[in-house]
Amino acid sequence: MPQLDKSDAKIETFLPDFCHIRIVFAVVIIAELLAFVLTLATPSARGGDWGYLSLVSIYIQWIALSSTATLCWLRARLNRLGNNGAALAAFALLLAITALFSELAYQVSQRFGHGALSINMSHLEFFSRNFAICAIASLLTLRYFYLQHQLKLNIEAENQYRLQALQARIRPHFLFNALNTIASLIRRQPQRAEEAVEDLADLFRHTLNSAEARLPFSTEVEIARRYLDMEQLRLGERLQVDWDIEAIPGDAALPALTLQPLLENAVCHGIESIGRGGEIRVRGMRHGGRLELSITNPLPAPGQEVQRRRQGLHIALDNTRQRLLAHFAEDGKLSSAQHDQQYEVKLRFPYQPCEPA
C-alpha cells in the first residue's frame, strides 16, 4: 500500500477533540468545580450565597462553552500549527474570550447591577482578576492535555515496539524450521515444496509488512492458517487443528499478530512435546458486543516439558495480555488454565469493527 496515504493522514496536536461530547462534558464539570472554588474563596459576606454561586457558574460556563465551541470550530486550523503554535493560539483564544465576557459582565453590572449582580471592584481590578484566573487555569489545563498526549504517544510507541518484537520473534525460530522442511520436500515432493514456499512468502508478507496496530480477525486467521500449514509440513499427522470460529465477525479488530503467537505456543509447548501429537481446538463465541476466543492444546506428561519452553510460554502470554489491555483497556482480557492435561488460553475483547486501511 502506498506510504503517501499515511503521511497525508490527519495531523493531530496534543489538544483533544473539543467536538467530542465526552470532552464537552469534562469541560462543563471542570468549569463548575472552578465556580465552586471561586465562590468558596469569596469573602464570607457573599461566599455562602447560592445566588452568587449561580451567577458565577453561569459566567464561567459561558466562557468555558464558548471556548470549547471555538476550539472545536478551529480544530483543523490549530492542528496545522503544530504543538507549540496550537498551544499559543489556544491560550490567546481563551484569554480573548475571557476578556470579552469580563467586559460584557462588567457593563451589565454597571447598568443593571444591584444586589448579587453588583460588582464591588473597579473595572481594572475586575478585568485583571478574571484575566489572571483564566491564564492560570488555561496553563494548567493545557499542560494536562500535553501530558496526556505524551502518555498516549508513549503507549503507542511501546505497542509498536512490542509488535516489532513479535515480528522479529517469528523470523529466526520459525524460518529455520520452515526452510529445513522445504529443503526436505524439494526432491521428494517438488510441487508441495513450491506450495510451501508460496505459503511461507504469504505468511511473511503479512507479518513483516504489517504496520497497522490492529488487524481484522479474518486477517489474523489467515496469518495463523499459513503458519499452521507450514508447521504441519514438519509435524505431519501429529498436528491436527479444529476451527470453530464462525461466531466471531471477520471485521472484528484485534492487535496485530495476536492469534499466531498463541497458536505457536500451542504447537511448541504442546503438540511438539508429545510423541503422538494432538489436536489444537480454536473456538469463537459472541455474547452481544463481547467476543471470546479460546485456544486449547494437549500437554505432555508431567516433567517432560523443558523449563525454558515454559518460561517462553509465560513471556508470550504476558505480552499478548498487555497488548490487549493497551488496545481495549479493561475490556480486553487474557486468561489461561490447565485442566485434565489440556491447556486453554481465553481472549475476551469487545467487538470493534476494524477500520479499513
UniProtKB/TrEMBL annotation:
For this protein, the record's Gene3D superfamilies field holds:
Histidine kinase-like ATPase, C-terminal domain
- GO annotation, cellular component aspect: membrane
What is a GO molecular function of this protein? phosphorelay sensor kinase activity
Keyword field: Membrane, Transmembrane, Transmembrane helix
**Stored InterPro entries:** Bact_2-comp_sensor_kinase, HATPase_C_sf, Sig_transdc_His_kin_internal
At the top level, the lineage of the source is: Bacteria
Start and end of every Signal transduction histidine kinase internal region domain? 162-239
Q: Where are the transmembrane segments?
A: 21-40, 52-74, 86-106, 126-146
Its recorded name reads Signal transduction histidine kinase internal region domain-containing protein
Species this protein is from: Candidatus Tenderia electrophaga
